[in-house]
């Protein structure tokens, strides 16, 4: 059976977000969106994630307008501090040490831009880590997994061994909250469950 035509553009180069969107059965194209991700002074984590998701979606929509654009942004939050992708090994090890034995928030925002404007939704999850040894953190860094992940870990990867609790959205912690995504698509009249199945 021939592949279905894409119904939207995903403003992300992340293979995880692509896989999650395909889980909803949404044929799409993917293009990276490049924006300034600097937090504004005093900006709350939910506002920050929502703003970035909206700016990514708006940037690609204004550049093409061929398809609706879906974008997302995820940030890890502990004691009010925003943890994005680690700049280097030292930053990643510091993040993991901070998360060790604590419960932190993962804020994932998703935005949809089309001819009607930009709509967004936010998912907030609480993730509890067990205590981590310095040796484990170093070994995890050496695996290569934390390098491009918010908070320096991937819930769907090796770091699953660290997570003792999750209250919220597993897909949101991965980077694309599927319930909120489906609700935005449904409200916009964009179909999902279109993936061909055997």
Topology:
Elements: E1 8-10, H1 15-23, E2 28-30, H2 45-64, E3 69-78, E4 81-83, H3 89-99, E5 103-114, E6 117-129, H4 134-142, E7 163-167, H5 170-174, H6 178-188
Helix pairs in contact: 3-4
**Main sheet, how many strands, which sense, barrel?**
7 strands, mixed
Globally, the shape reads: globular
So how many helices? 6
Distance between the termini: 10 Å
As a percent range, the share of strand residues is 15-25%
CATH domain topology:
Maf protein
3D architecture notes:
The chain is 33% helix and 25% strand. It has 198 residues and is an alpha/beta fold. Strands 1, 2, 3, 4, 5, 6 and 7 form a seven-stranded mixed sheet that branches. A hairpin with a 2-residue loop joins strand 3 (69-78) and strand 4. The protein is globular. The mean pLDDT is 94.
List keywords for this structure.
single chain, 198 residues, 6 helices, Maf protein, alpha/beta, 7-stranded mixed β-sheet, 7 strands
